[in-house]
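Example with several molecule types.
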Amino acid sequence: MCRLSAITAETYFSPMENIHALDTMKEGHDGSGLGLVLRDLGGEFEGLKRYPVLSGICSHEGMERVDDYMSRRGFTEVFSWEPEIDPDFTPETGLRDHYCAKVYDYPREAKRLPKREKEDLLMQVRLELRAMGESDESIFVFSFYPDVITLKEVGDPMAVARYFNLERSGLEARTIFAQGRQNTNYAIYLYACHPFFIQGYCTMTNGENTAFVPIREFLGGRGFPGYTGYNSDSEVFTHILHYVHRQLGYPLRYYKDVITPLKAEEMEKRRDREALLLLKRSLRPLCIDGPNCVIGFIPDGTTFMVQDAKKLRPGVVGGYPGKYALMSEECGLDRAIPDRDRSRDFSPMKYDMAVVTPRAKEMKVWNQLSA
Amino acid sequence: MEPAERVDQNYELSLKEFPYIVRWRDDRCTRCGRCTAVCPVSAIEPTVQVQRTVTSEGTAPKPAAQRRLVHVVRQVRDIDRYCTGCGTCTLVCPNTAIEPEYNPQHKFLFHKNRGGAAYRRGGRRNDPQPSTVDQLKFVRISMLTDPALDAGRHEFRIRTYLGRNLPAEKLPLEVKRGRLARDEEAFIPPVREIYPIRIGSMSVGALSPHMWEGLAMGVAYLNEVEGMPVVMCTGEGGIPPRLLKSRFAKYFILQIASGYFGWDEIVHAIPEMTEDPAGIEIKYGQGAKPGDGGLLMAYKVLKLIARIRGVPEYVDLASPPTHQTKYSIEEAIAKMIQSMSMAWGFRVPVYPKISGTTTAQAVLNNAVRNPYAAALCIDGEDGGTGAAYNVSMDKMGHPIASNIRDCYLDLVKQGKQNELPLIAAGGMGKNGSLAANAAAMIMLGASAVDSGKYIMQATAQCFGDEYNRCNLCNTGRCPRGITTQDPRLYRRLDPDMVAERLVEVFKAADMELRKIFAPMGRSTELPIGMSDGLGCANREIAERLKIKHVV
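Resulting structure tokens for the full complex:
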């Protein structure tokens, strides 16, 4: 089962904090991969927040194609970052030519577009780049969005972190998600590695998604070009979040109501029961049966943890105003925030959604049964 | 030696031509006469035979021949009185002296067309082979990657929706103070939460009063005591007005078919109804007799049935093959569905039922575009009936599995698989595996299934099987009292026992569904379209249904 390590804080911190937490949870992952998503970037990226960052892996030839394509689309490179690779370490998948986080300025005609249209443009670019390099694996693109960097590689998280030289990279952010992958169903493949990201929405999950096929088919029928990929059965959790919050415009708490709908009699206590009943029917294929713990963030920086309604993968949230960690194991939380008040740790159960507000101001627990 | 003139009597069939040969044991028979009295087709009759016995007695015996008359039970060789193999004779025999035996070499269909009349019967398609649905296995068993649920201890919610679910994008919702609120004025199509196995359409005229009463009682008990929202379709011809006006009406789906029988009475009862029905089914076709309308033979149209249907007694009630008010598919769907919806103030789901056919997707796409169509029910070739031409039953129709699968995948392409529920009928539980068949169809894309024959066999011990056993439903002489209006016959059936068995059947099926869903990790919603959990050893079936090929 994958191990999950999310930290959100008021001040910038290094992704090594997540990696060290993952390392304490090592019994739970087999070192088949590390995924990192950083949002609200500090360091060299702090002054570049309004520019989209293209994160991915390319061969030399792939990088040339990316540069050529981006130039044709009118994007101008503002800044480029590559990790300092440890030459003594070779990933299982072989040496890569480039790991990149390239910051671009928008094409002139796109600069004044509304935010949603800009997001759609960025996603379209990401999908086209992915399609260009997917067959020969010359280009992997994980995210293309302002103030977000994604790093992924196959291998043990600590080893990969050393390989990327993250300790001295200067890379830092206010919200960082890291996942230590336990490969089960699928061949090790970078696009199957959590966390998944789409237009400011990100989730990582542990456990198998038993309802994957009908959910994938439902999302595929929404007519939204970004609902594609699905090399992992957990990618649908990110897309459900995006669909419910961005596309349908529902408040975040309804994500929980969609993936684990209440029974009709349980809805009676809710003031919005009529709306809930309609949601339950119309979004029936998006119901999950677990076992899953989902940790995610949305564009405003709110971070959350939810469980499926029955089998409840482990998950715990703890910290203090200014810094919270959302972990799949208590030991990971101890490593990430040792000086917290442990009595205030919270493990969400079937009806709960633990929400940490932007910049880790506070942790709120919302219960589905409450009015 | 028989006299020579007996040999060339070609008007007479040999017993070898008959589908069932009655084995009668002289040594066991007490000549009580029960078998011949009870036989629904008079296939056996008491008669006398001359027996010649030779005895030799004494010290210098001299054989002596004796002739005496003995009473025997004999199978007649009249094709119109063929033994149907129902076995009622065996059931009543106090001494196990008589039993019909299936004759696999029979030539029944070569002869059952006397007078130029094509063979008509009740029952089902006579195909004893395992159906496609029976060959599907549930191959996704979670153990370690995903802990399986416990069918006995975990909470399961086996429910489905009958009615049209609006796409989320069109829900009349808005965010007010951080919560979703519904626009009270906006129209929301009616949706019922029901149990995913329904009792398929069997009319009051086709079934006996005791059978119908038993099923209705069982349905009410399942709903009100067991908390299982099982619904039952009335079939064509209406239901007794007292039931229609009762609080139990909500457990029934009223069917309107091309003969409109019973609908004058229903329409007049609407103002006095206290509950809305569960739904309205518009029957355009039936799996057992595609292309034919309903048929109720005159000898079943007794006083009660005539009153309910609004027709004279003892006349054949043959519904036309199509709705006569229909001009085009668009108009049929629009006019019928909206008329029926309007009759109940748009509070009741209204949907069409068609027979399995290669044109199902055309109907589906029409229904999808009609915002008032609540579902589409497809009745496959294994559907049963009270009366139909044998050729229709045996040779016409479309298997349900690929029909439903194609329709579901068509909906998936359009992103509408959750909007219009598909209901699969025809052959559910054909070989006794009701829950497994239902689960397989659900995983292929159905939202619910209908079962009729299995229910009759399991709750009222219907004799019928895939070897043309009994199948007398059309004659009004059902030996079990299930499909007859003759009080002497239906008194054989205890409605309380039917109700009790129905409850047992559904409770058992519910546990079996849990057993199937639990290791797949599904408990909150049905695994509709979860085709990755299905496998089949037959490669052609697997490829056609787009499921795993497993050997």
